[in-house]
Design goal:
The complex is a heterodimer of chains A (319) and B (155).
Chain A (H helix, E strand, L loop, with lengths): L3 H11 L5 E7 L6 E6 L2 H4 L24 E5 L1 H12 L8 E5 L8 H8 L5 E6 L3 E6 L2 E6 H4 L2 H4 L11 E2 L15 H7 L3 H12 L7 H5 L25 H14 L9 H5 L7 H15 L29
Parallel strand pairs in A: 1-3, 3-4, 4-8
Antiparallel strand pairs in A: 1-2, 5-6, 6-7
Chain B lengths: L10 E6 L3 H10 L8 E6 L7 H9 L4 E6 L10 H19 L6 E5 L5 H18 L10 H12 L1
Parallel strand pairs in B: 1-2, 1-3, 3-4
Helix pairs in contact in B: 1-4
Classes of the chains: A alpha/beta (319), B alpha/beta (155).
Chain lengths: 319, 155
């Protein structure tokens, strides 16, 4: 990316004041990136900005409270930072935000589906519109638009909405469009029994690894998650689909009015369960009832942390 | 119980201690006729109700869930039901995506003196649940256990 050098320069400038800067660098193969902790000059050179930078680095911030941390964010990640600040889970004085205009990230599941075996990737060349992946000496040419993460196709905040250093040219439109919930609306039209069956079938694959929880920037309870509590005993240790589904409902409900739809839960899922849809549904209703979007405005109070005596958009059942 | 076997559904009611539980008591003292499908769980305040109680109840075999608290502005703890209203409204709108009909869960406000209103709420809600019939139940560890039962029910 053309602004990569500029970004390194800003990090170089800010690093002496900071304990660490979190960015991304190359990983075990050319098709993957990994979070990268920058402590000194030699680490700065390894920083890479590419469509492979899927991770939402805001996830690290609540666990590093008290340290001076710099964080490189995409547009969607910056909303998580704003939401964490809104909820006072991190302090603005402790963090330095590096933003850049993001043109979308690659969905590894889609790449895997298109290529098949991705165990021995030798190289991965990316341009603005395509990428060429060489696996076992065989080159595969893919259109970037085909392997772009679903959330990026309808991205409304490509630029970091909060930043101390912003590199590159801003690409966001002045008024973000309405959120795109077409897929969700299609699903909502199915019969109730089909919807019920759909979640059972999808959740059947769940191995309860809780990667969705670990990757979520707003799941801040960590060791105190009610999924592991024995008293109250919300979830059993048994292997059954009811508890698997119940956990996803817990996650979705605890994200109500907080989720910024960064999609990390679904991205982290090793068995590709479409759990982002549950959060989108929650967000759609929150937008509907409270006209509120999480992680957009630092001064907003999340809707479930406040109330009005008269709620304009809640009509109660007339018995 | 055997007389009612198959005729009754399982409805769980979460009632606040100060208004609705009193209202249900008033209805009882006044000897108002009520359907007997509802099982009541008393909670200190509607604000005590974690909306996940509702999902948990439905997933564990309830056919309907009713929540009732003090009227807005009448909460014993001043603002518990204001918070509850927001939480419950969101949960009510969320449930359909999981495959539960919107009418399986309702929330309302009944004060301690409104025995008559309590009778009306219980009767109407029970009717509503009977119209919907039994809620889908999750049985067994695998999804296929439940799905094959659902398939058999459709045949």
């Amino acid at each position: 990316m053309k602004f990569q050098e500029e970004l390194k320069e800003s990090i170089r400038k800010a690093l002496p004041e900071l304990d660490v800067v979190i960015g991304w660098c190359g990983s075990f193969d050319p098709l993957h990136a990994t979070p990268h902790f920058i402590y000194g000059e030699e680490d700065i050179e390894k920083l890479e900005i590419s469509p492979l930078n899927v991770h939402n680095l805001a996830t690290y911030l609540p666990g590093m409270r008290g340290k001076k941390v710099g964080v490189v964010v995409k547009g969607c990640d910056s909303r998580s930072v704003v939401e964490l600040l809104q909820e006072k889970l991190i302090s603005r004085d402790d963090i330095t935000i590096f933003g850049f205009p993001c043109t979308g990230v690659i969905d590894q599941s889609k790449v895997k589906k298109a290529i098949g075996y991705v165990g021995n990737v030798q190289s991965c060349d990316m341009s603005d519109e395509s990428l060429v992946v060489v696996v076992d000496d065989k080159p595969h040419s893919l259109k970037l638009s085909e392997v772009l993460a679903e959330k990026c196709k309808s991205c409304r905040y490509p630029d970091a909405i909060i930043s101390d250093y912003f590199v590159g040219d801003r690409i966001a439109k002045k008024d973000p469009a309405e959120p795109n919930y077409k897929e969700l609306e299609k699903f909502e039209k199915l019969a109730v029994s089909e919807r019920f069956g759909y979640w059972l079938k999808e959740l059947d694959r769940c191995i309860r690894c809780y990667a969705c929880r670990s990757a979520c920037p707003l799941c801040v309870c960590r060791d105190h998650c009610i999924a592991e509590s024995r008293d109250p005993h919300w979830l059993s240790q048994e292997n059954n689909v009811r508890d698997k589904l119940m956990f996803q409902v817990i996650h979705a409900y605890h994200m109500a009015g907080r989720c910024t739809e960064c999609g990390e839960c679904q991205r982290a899922c090793p068995v590709d369960i479409p759990i982002l849809m549950l959060k989108q549904k929650m967000n759609k209703e929150v937008l509907d009832i409270f006209n509120y979007e999480a992680g957009v405005n630092l001064k907003d109070t999340p809707p479930l942390l406040s109330f009005k005596m008269e709620e304009e958009n809640i009509t109660e059942k007339d018995w | 119980m055997p007389v009612l076997e198959g005729k009754e559904l399982r409805i769980v009611g979460f009632l606040c201690n100060w208004c609705s539980y009193g209202g249900a008591d008033t209805a009882g003292v006044g000897r108002f006729n009520q359907p007997t499908d509802l099982r009541i769980i008393k909670v200190p305040c509607s604000g005590r109700i974690d909306p996940l109680f509702i999902v948990k109840a439905l997933m564990n075999g309830a056919d309907g869930v009713l929540v009732s608290g003090c009227h807005p502005r009448d909460c014993h703890y001043s603002e518990g039901n204001f918070y509850a209203r927001r939480r419950l409204e969101i949960m009510q709108k969320f449930l359909p995506i999981l495959g539960y009909e919107p009418g399986r869960f309702e929330y309302t406000w009944v004060s301690a003196s409104e025995g008559q209103r309590w009778q009306q709420v219980v009767t109407e809600f029970t009717d509503q649940i009977h119209k919907l019939g039994p809620a889908p139940k999750i049985v067994g560890p695998e999804a296929s256990d439940t799905l094959s039962l659902m398939q058999a029910a459709l045949k």
